[in-house]
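Lab notes, practical 5.
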Amino acid sequence: MSVLSGEDVANFLENISQEQVQVNGVDLTVEKIFRLKGVGVISCDGVKLPEYFEVQCDGGKFFLEKGVYVVQVREKISIPLDAVGICLPRSSLVRMGVQVGSALWDSGYVGYSKILLNVENPIIIEKGARFAQLILIRCEKKAKEGYRGRYQNEQ
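Output from the prediction step:
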């Protein structure tokens, strides 16, 4: 296994600028932010997500109080069949008391992904701001078949 260069990762994303391409990955940017409300359920029969309420963008900025949010990224991500994707926070967010979380992006996943934002200290984030970094790790074997889960081609 090896980590792809930022230039290589950029080949698998749409809607990016050169500024987003880093040495070992590509920065992801904010398109929309949602606040979660209600109970989510994971059972043997499936998943029920809590309600998502879109946070208003005021003058191009999102004002986020302490809480849990979900960010929809601006970039369309296409994980190749011979790699997996991992998302990490940009270091500035960590220094502001904000954590980023995501699941592993399986080989073959395609979509405008959603990423968890756990805000411990209030922040202001501009629409289009870089907040997380996607890295791709090359797998030892190419997947015979790509991701086919419920979030494939999410908008």
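Observations recorded by the TA: Helices lie at 6-10, 91-95. The two ends are 30 Å apart (CA to CA).
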